[in-house]
Amino acid sequence: MKRLFSAALLALTPLSFFCHAAAADDNSAAGVADAVSERLSAYLTAFNDHDADAVAAFWAEDGVSTNEETGERVTGRDAIRDDLAAFFSDNPAAKLTGEVTEVRSVHPEVAIAEGVATLFLPETEPTPSAFTAVMAKTGGQWLLESSGERPLPTPESSATALEELSWLIGRWQDDTEGVAVDTTVRWSPNKAFLIRSYRAEYDDGGSFEGTQVIGWHPLDKSFRTWSFNSDGSFGEGVASRSGDEWLLKSTDVHSDGVVSTYTQVIRPVDEQTLEVQKIGRTEDGAPLPSTEPITVRRAPDAALTTEQEAQP
Questions:
Q1: Each residue's pLDDT tens digit, 94-152
Q2: How many other β-carbons are positioned within 10 Å of the β-carbon of residue 53?
Q3: Which of 30, 65, 150, 279 has the most CB atoms in a 10 Å sphere around its CB?
Q4: Start and end of every SnoaL-like domain (predicted)?
Q5: Can you tell me whether residue 126 is helix, strand or coil?
């Protein structure tokens, strides 16, 4: 799996800041970044279509993919295609997403791209890795000459890791008919965790509330969540970034013993608005339809003082 993942590494969604003006000179740094971004985006489509031949065509004939943690290498376009074909056969639901954090133009026909890719497989936790890829322009096309995959670096502390989610801090309200949902996210003492408190008031007079703790798992290098609700239900999840979205894969145990699973998709619309939807839902193993997207808006008094942020 490690070697196959390395061969499939560069299925990426480029960040919007690489979308330079269309009129940029092809030989300029902006033009090179545009071209590399377009190729990586097309690579993503081919990978998620599970087309091994199409993916292999993005590699140079002597391209090399290396897993820097294990030292395993896949050398040559044909070997990469064979590994991908076997991987797709064994993992028909595999998806790979990611983001480019930097493109450096070494030469008008050579570029280095860096970023993070995340592999998604059913029944397993997402697997993120950092990568560095060297691309060269050959015959008018940008091809992958080499890629190196490695584990993500370990943040110095939980607080450092959780800074990536600090945009959640504040007060939020759902736009949902028949129920008023109010959510507040704040830091725990020492910024060891993020604490999310939520309360729902239904038009029929009922109510529901709970607390979610968001933390960093230093061994798995993943964001974890633990939820506890007023009806006796509780849950645990793993959160990961997929391009501009966040995915929270959760398992909940209800007070009557029923087990439900789902993936919550959180899509930032702008600095003040989110869209939230649950997909891939099951209840005791039986599939359920996805929920409709819900718009969540930052409340006018969302800004919290430093003291309020740190309240337990």
A1: 888 877 778 888 888 999 998 888 888 887 777 778 889 999 999 889 999 999 888 87
A2: 10
A3: 65
A4: 42-142
A5: coil
- Report the CATH number at residue 206: 2.40.128.20
The secondary structure of residue 43, as a DSSP letter, is H
Provide the pLDDT for residue 304. 47
Domain count for the chain, please give it: 2
Nearest to 60 by CA among 45, 39, 38: 39
Residues 183, 167, 226, 191, CA torsion sign: negative
Q: What pLDDT shows up at residue 108?
A: 85
Helix (H, G, I), strand (E, B) or coil at 235: strand
Note down the domain range covering 177. 158-309
Which domain CATH number covers 109? 3.10.450.50
Residues 83 and 7 sit within 8 Å (Cβ to Cβ): yes
The two tokens of residue 233 are 């239900």
Instruction: Give the residue from 150, 174, 208 where a domain finishes.
Output: 150
pLDDT at 28: 79
Among 150, 182, 201, which residue terminates a domain?
Answer: 150
Q: What is the pLDDT of residue 271?
A: 87
Q: Terminus-to-terminus CA distance in the chain, angstroms?
A: 42
- 32's enclosing H/E stretch is helix 29-48
Claim to verify: residue 11 and residue 143 sit in the same structural domain: yes
Q: What CA–CA distance (Å, rounded) separates 11 from 33?
A: 16
Task: Please answer whether residues 299 and 173 qualify as being in contact, where contact means their C-beta atoms are separated by less than 8 angstroms.
Answer: yes
- Global confidence as pTM: 0.58
- Hey, what amino acid is at 16? S
298 shares a domain with 162: yes
* Cα separation, 35 vs 153, whole angstroms: 28
pLDDT of residue 11: 37
d(CA 161, CA 36): 29
Residues of the chain with pLDDT under 50: 1-24, 302-312
Cα 254 to Cα 234: distance, rounded to the nearest angstrom: 7
**Tokens 């899509």 sit on residue:** 267
